[in-house]
Amino acid sequence: MPSNACVWRAISDYVPTGIEANMTKNTTTSLDAATPIVIVGHVDHGKSTLIGRLLHDTDNLQDGKVAQIIESSKKRGLKIEWSFLLDSLQIERDQGVTVDSTRIPFNLAGREYVIVDAPGHRQFLRNMITGAADAEAAVLVVDAQEGAREQTRRHAMLLHLIGIRHIVVLLNKVDLLDFDQAKIAAVQDDVTDLLTRLDLKASVFVPASARDGDNIAERSERMPWYTGPTLTEALVAVPSPASRAELALRLPVQDVYRFGDKRYVAGRIERGRVRVGDTVVIGTQKTPARIASIEGWHAAPQVSAYAGQSVAVTLEPDVIPDRGDLLHHRETAPVEASRVRTRLFWLRQEPLRVGESFRLRLSTAEHAVTVTAIESVVNLDDLTENPGEEVPPEGFAQIVLSASENIQFDPFTPGTTDGRGVLVDRQQRIVGGAPLIGAAEIAAGEKVIHPSASHVSVQDRERVKGHQGGVFWLTGLSGAGKTTLARAAENRLFAAGVDVTVLDGDTLRAGLCSDLGFSEAERTENVRRAAEVARILRDAGQVVLVTLISPLKSDRALAARIIGDNFAEIFVDAGLDVCEQRDPKGLYAAARAGKISSFTGIDAPYEAPQAPALRVETGAQAVDAAAGELVSFVEATVRADAGQRKRG
Amino acid sequence: MQPENGVMDTMDHLDQLEAQSVFILREAYRKLKPLAMLWSLGKDSNVMVWLAKKAFLGRVPFPVMHVDTGKKFPEMYQFRDEYTKKWELELLLGDCPPVEEMDPSLPPAARSAARKTAGLAAMIEKHKLQGVIAGIRRDEQGTRAKERVFSPRGASHKWDIRNQPPEFWDQYATPHEEGMHIRVHPLLAWREIDIWRYIEREGIPLVDLYFSKNGKRYRSLGDSDITSPVESNAATVAEVITELETTKTSERAGRAMDHESEDAFERLRVAGYL
Predict the structure, then answer these.
(1) B189 contacts A462? CB cut-off 8 A
(2) For residue range A133-148, what is the model confidence (pLDDT) as tens digits?
(3) Would you call A297 an interface residue with chain B, using a CB distance cutoff of 8 Å?
(4) Are residue B32 and residue B97 in the same domain, yes or no?
(5) Is the predicted pLDDT of residue B199 greater than 60, yes or no?
(6) Is the separation of the CB atoms in B185 and B148 below 8 Å?
C-alpha cells in the first residue's frame, strides 16, 4: 500500500481535538477490517429485536429510521417493532419472519463491526452459513424463560463446526424471570452444559432484556447483582484476528493473465509472505520457479507481499500454472492426499448417500470427489455422533471423500482460510461445507474406489445438443402402453433433433438384468440398475425414456434419488380391465392361470403415483395423441431455456 | 507492526476492502464470460473501475456499460466522454424505453427508475452477458443488505429473494442454466465513507456535482429529475469525509424513488433494478 495511507478509524473518542487532525494523516491505528459478529438463536428468542435495540442504543441509526420503523409498525397494528430495521423486505414485515441474512455495518468505540442477522427457521443453515462463516464472534440469544431449544442446539453445533470460538451468550427476556439471580443462573447452567458437549465455551453470559435495553448498551438498574459486562462491553472485548503473515506461504493461483508481453500469476495470499527472489514450488507437480516480480498498478513497488493481499506475480522461468495450483516454499509443503476426511454440514434438501460425486472447491482449486464413507452422523437432539447410512438435509456428519488425484491442503483451522472445502453438485450449486480435517487412511477390507468425473460441463453438453439431459420414468401396469408410447415419442423427439434413448424393461431384462427374477428384492435391483444407467445417459446429455412397471412407490423414489436432477415421473394410466383385455404379451392370461406368479395387478400390488409430473391417459386415447402429450412435455422440460440464448 | 523493506505488513481497513474487491473482480473475470461492468458515472462506479485497473494491472479487460436514461446531468456526460478516453475503456451504450412503457402501478419516481431496469435487461440480452458487475453497497438500503456478492438472476432477470444460494468462504455461485446471469457486487462490503476515503487516498476523479456549490451538493447521483441535492458546505473530498463522519442522514435521502412507498425500492430490485 502507498506509504501515505491515512487512518480511517474515528479516533476522536480518544484524542482531544486539535491533535486529531495531525494524527489522522500520519499514523496507522486501524489494523483490522470490520469485525463480523453473527447473531444466532432460536426463532422468537429475540434476535432481531436485540439488533434493533443495539443499533439504536449505540447511536448507529440514521435520521428518520426510528420514525420510519414506528410508522411501519403502526401500519401493521404493532407498537414498535425493532426487527423491521433488519427485516427490510415487505414480505418479512408482513409475515413477521426474516427471509434472508442481513449484514449491517456498526461502529462501537471507534471499531468497525458488521452485525450479521440470520433467519432462525426456514432453510436456516443455508442462510446462516452465508452470514456466519466468516464471523469473528457470535452472540447466541437464548430466551431465559424457554431455555435452549432445537435451533439453539443447531446453531451452537454450527458455531462449533465453522470454528467460532468467541461466543457471547445473551440470556434474553430476563424480565419474565423477574430478574431473579437464581432462576437466571439455572438457565445459564443449562446452556453451559449444552456448549460443553460441543466443546464450546461462552466467553460471557449477559442477562438482558433486549426489548427494554437492559444490559445492552446501558447497565441495567434492575439487576444490581450482575457485575459482568453489558453486551456492548462484551463486543468491544472480542479479540481481533491474529496476523497470518508469519505462517508458511500459501498462494493459490486464481488466474493467469497475459497482458502485453508479460504473464502474470494472480491470486490472494492466504497465509505467509512471499518475496521477490523466493523460490516457490507450484502445485502437485512441484514445478519450481522464482518470483521475478510482484506487480501492481498505482501502488508503490513491492518486494514482498503477505497474507490477505491480492497480488500478481511474474515467474522465472515463465511457467504457466493452473488455477488452483498452490504456490508454497519447498520446506513448508501442505498435506497431500487423495482421500480426505471432512466435517460436513449438508445444505441440500435431499439426504446425502455414499457413492455420490461432487466437485470439492478448496480456495481456487476444484477436485472431482466421491463420497466413499459416511463415518458418523450427528444426532441433533442429544448431540451424539452415531453410525449412519445417510446425512439428512441440514445435517452434520463426518465423511470421507476420495479424489482421482492428490489434493493439497492445510487442515481446517477455525477462523482462518485453511481447509475450507465446499461441495458443489454437477449444476455447480453449493450443497455443503466440508472443512477438511485430514488425510483418511484406507481401512482394512474397505472397497477402495476413486471414481473420476467428467471435465465436460453440463452447460457445454447442453450447448452442443441444444437441450438438457433428463430422465422420464414411465410407470404403469403391464399392457398400459408404456413401450408403445415411448417408442412413438422416441421417433418424434429424434426427428425434432433431441438425442433420445429408450430404456425398456424387457430389453434390460434380456441383457444387463438377465440374472434377475421377479421377487420384490430383485425388482428393486432391476429398478436400481435401470436408474443408474439412466443417470449415466442423462449425465451424457441424453433424454432417456425409461419404461418399467416399477409398481412400488419406494422403488420409484429410489430411482428419483439416484437420478437426482431432471427426473420426471410419468404415469401411463390405463385401467386394469383395459390392460387385461389388451394383454399383448399374454401375461395376464398366464397369471390368471397360475403359470406366473407375483404379477402386478393380479397377485402383486401396483401403487399408482400420487403426484406424477405428467399423467398420460392410454385407456381410450389413441397412441398418436398420447405420444403427442409426452413429446410436448419432454420438449418443454428439456428445452426450458435452451435456444433462447446461445453463449459463445 | 514492523515495517519490512519499507513496506508495512499489516493491512488497514481500505487495504482489506481493496484486496477483497480485487479478488471478487478476478473471480468474475475468470468465471463469467461475457462480462461487463456497469458504469453509472457516480462515485461508486468510478471506484469500481479503479479497482478493476488494480486487479488487472492498469487495464479494464471487459467493457463498461452505461445504461443511459437520457436524463443524467450534463456534467456526467462530459465526465463519461473524458474518462472513457483517459482510462482506455471500451464503452457500451444502451438506452432506456420511455416511461409510458413501465409498470403504471409503480409510484412516479420508481416508475421513472424502472426504465433503467428495462434498458439494462435489453443490454444483457443484446450482449448475451453472463456477468454484470454493479456497484451497489449493503449500507445503502435495506434490501441491498440482503444481497450476495454473486447474485444469480434467472432468465427473467428477477431477483429471487427467497431462494438465494448459500455463499461462504469466498465460493460464489456460477450460472447453472441457460439464460441466467450473475450480478457481481464487488463493493457490497464498502460503506459510503470507505468509498470517499478510498477516493481521497487514491486520487480518483469525480464529477464535481458531489461538491458544494451555493450551500448544496449531491450525495448520490441519479436521474436529474428524481435526484435532489442536500444542504452541505463540503467542497473538497476531505470536507465530504468530515461531513460524513458526523452526519446521520441517509445517503439516498435525495433519491425520490426510495421514499414514495415502503416497498417501492424492493419492487424495483426484485424486477432486476440494481
Answers:
(1) no
(2) 878 899 999 999 999 9
(3) yes
(4) yes
(5) yes
(6) yes
Contact A8 B193 (CB under 8 A): yes
Q: Does A89 touch chain B (CB under 8 A)?
A: yes
Q: In this complex, is the C-beta atom of A66 within 8 Å of any C-beta atom belonging to chain B?
A: no
In terms of domains, do B35 and B109 share one?
yes
The pLDDT assigned to A644 comes to: 41
Q: What is the rounded distance in angstroms from the CA atom of residue B126 to the CA atom of residue A215?
A: 57
Q: Is A258 at the interface with chain B, CB within 8 A?
A: no
Banded model confidence at residue B177, pLDDT cuts 50, 70, 90: confident
pLDDT in tens, A554-564: 899 889 988 88
User: Domain A251-328 classified CATH 2.60.40.1840?
Assistant: no
A7 to chain B: which residues are within 8 Å by CB?
Answer: 12
Residue B154: closest C-alpha in chain A: A641
The CATH class that applies to domain A35-236 reads alpha beta
Among B10, B125, B155, whose Cβ lies nearest the Cβ of A641?
B155
Gap between the Cα atoms of B234 and B217, Å rounded: 8
B182 domain-assigned: yes
- Residue B217's domain comprises 206-258
Establish how many alpha carbons lie within 13 A of residue B118's alpha carbon, considering only the half-sphere containing its beta carbon. Answer: 16
Rounded to two decimals, the ipTM of the complex is: 0.91
pLDDT at A24: 30
Q: Are residues B154 and B228 both part of a single domain? A: no
- Does residue B248 register a pLDDT over 70? yes
With contacts defined as CB-CB under 8 Å, which chain B residues touch A86? 142, 145
Cβ <8 Å between A103 and B56: no
Identify whether B49 is part of a domain.
yes
Instruction: For residue B56, tell me if it sits in a domain.
Output: yes
A3, A30, A550, A632: the active-site residue:
A550
Q: How many contacts (CB atoms, under 8 Å) link A and B?
A: 234
> What mean pLDDT is predicted for residues A233-252?
89
Counting DSSP H helices and E strands in chain A, the numbers are: 16, 30
What's B141's domain CATH number?
3.40.50.620
Do A295 and A312 touch, CB atoms closer than 8 A? Answer: yes
Q: Which of B164, B180, B193 sits opposite A100 (nearest CB)?
A: B164
Domains A35-236 and A251-328 alike in fold: no
Based on the residue annotation, tell me whether A363 is a catalytic residue of this protein: no
User: What's the whole-number mean pLDDT along residues A116-131?
Assistant: 71
Is B47 contained in some domain? yes
CB-based contact B16:A309 (threshold 8 Å): no
Of residues A2, A273, A430, nearest to B171 (C-beta) = A430
Question: Which residues on chain B are in Cβ contact (under 8 Å) with A243?
Answer: 1, 9-10
Q: Which residue, B2, B59, B52, B46, is CA-closest to B27?
A: B52
Q: What is the pTM of this model?
A: 0.78
Residues of B in contact with A646 (CB under 8 A): 128
Q: Are residues B253 and B141 in the same domain?
A: no
Q: Tally Cβ neighbours within 10 Å of residue B126.
A: 10
The reply to whether B137 and B20 lie within a common domain is yes
The three-class DSSP label of residue A225 is coil
Q: For residue B11, what pLDDT is reported? A: 85
CATH class label, A336-439: mainly beta
Give yes or no: residues B115 and B226 share one domain: no
* CATH, range A459-638: 3.40.50.300
Sheet strands side by side (includes A262-268): A251-252, A326-328, A279-282, A287-295, A310-316, A262-268, A255-259
- Whole-number percent of chain A with pLDDT over 90: 50
3-state class of A298 per DSSP?
coil
Please list every residue in chain B whose beta carbon sits closer than 8 Å to the beta carbon of residue A9: 13
Our count of domains for chain B comes to 2
Chain B nearest CA to A6, separation (Å): 7
Domain extents for chain A? Answer: 35-236, 251-328, 336-439, 459-638
Shared-domain flag, residues B125 and B243: no
Query: CA B191, B196, B199: angle at the middle one, nearest 5?
Result: 125
Main-chain dihedrals φ then ψ at residue A508, nearest 5 degrees: -65, -45
Q: Do A133 and B245 touch (CB under 8 A)?
A: no
pLDDT of residue A451: 66
Residues B37 and B115 in one domain: yes
Verify whether the Cβ–Cβ distance B177 to A641 is below 8 Å: yes
